[in-house]
Structures are given as C-alpha cells and as structure tokens.
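Now for one record.
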Amino acid sequence: MTDAVLVELLEDCKVDSSRPVPFHTQVYEVLENLIMQSLRPGDQLPSEPKLCELFGVSRTVIRHALEQLDRDGLIVRIMGKGTFVAEPKISEGLAGRLTGFFEDMVEQGYTPVSKVLRQERVEADARIARLLDLKVGEAVIVIRRLRFVSDIPLQLVTTYLPYALCSPVLDANFRGQSLYAFLRSACDLHIARGKRMIEAVLATQEEASLLEIDPGAPLILLDSVSYLEDGRPLEYYRAVHRSDRARFEVNLLRMQM
C-alpha cells in the first residue's frame, strides 16, 4: 500500500476528546483495525511525526500506542527504517494436549514440510541415556529436522528415540508426515503424557543460518520428554523456534477447592 493511500485512510482519524477512552487507546484501536482489515505484512506505517499530525496528539501518545502494537505482535519497529506490519505469528500448543508441530500446523490449515538434516542410529551418551532411561551406549535414533511453513523455516528440532522400541523410524520419510502418527501406525506406540520446558535463548551461528535470522536473535527453546502409558520414556527432543514467527498457547483450568 502506498504512503498516499495509507495517509488518506487515516485522515479522518483524529482522537475524540469527548470519549472516556485514553488517547493512546484510541490510536491503538484505529491502527489495529487498519492492520487487521486493510494492510498486509511488510506494509510501512507513517512516521511518528506524521501520525501525530494525523491523529492530533503528542508524540508520547503515538509511542505508547505503537509500543502496545509491538507487544501484541502486530508491528515490527526497525531502527533507522521505520515501523512495519508484522508477519502473523503461528501458534503451537504448549500444554494440555500432546500434539506435535506437524499436527498443530495441519490443524491450523498449513502444510508443514520438513528438511531432514540427520537420521541415523547412534549410541546414547550419558545425558540422552538418563532422559530416555537407557544405559550409556544403548542404541538410539536421532532425527534432526528443519521445519518449514509457507516456505519459511520456523523450527529446528533434534529428536532422540530408543532404537529397540521403534527401529522402523530409521528408514521412514519424515519430509511430509508426522513422527507421532508414524509411531502410532507403524510401531503401535502411543504417547500418554509429556513434560515440556520452555526457555529463551539466543541463536547460534548455525541455528541462525538454518532459520534465516541474524546470529544472536532471540529463539524460543522447548525441551521435551514424552512417555508411554506404562511410564517408559519414548522421545526426547530439543526444538528452537523463531520468536518473531512463533507463539505458544496454554490452556489453564481453575482447580476446584
């Protein structure tokens, strides 16, 4: 959208001092509505001075509104370049349900694709053996995948599975299928529960190159162990997600006292 068209859309958007709503909230509401209904990711918003002129408010009010839009993931602010409409974030379930990345994406109407970087049988080191309740040196399958949605790399995940439980995984093609679905259909293995930990980390040089972001950019790290109904660990994975494109949803239930 051109600057002229965008300015025209905002020309009659001055704040209403008679409304019992703070000025920055009124500005936020107008810009949010514009972003959701008329703009596309990558469109640039007018400069702060121009927004002050269009809305008839101070720069403090505009900055307050933009900060809220930024926190809500609707815009990105690039120093020296301006303010742009953000790419929509893609949600994944974090708690309350045991679905994987593939299933989460399909449920939202996306077609996820994985580039398999590594898929082999190795010996478990001390950490992997502890997490999967194995002896050091026991055989495990390691799969490393770069996950794409709409041709954008979103997740880099490394998964470990006990070879004795699911040897067919070693030769399966996971470019366009769910690992969890394969475990159910080919190995008759059903995950019953899991433990996931979330942490903020910075992208290494390798992670940045694969995920097409800058080294040191913020990532969301998930560490997860999944268990069978009898309590045996089936899977450990370490997944890093681009924080500019991913968010996690948690369903909470109030405990009855």
The chain has a mean pLDDT of 86. Residues 3-85 form a domain with the Arc Repressor Mutant, subunit A fold (CATH 1.10.10.10). The longest strand covers residues 191-202. The chain is about 30% helix and 35% strand.
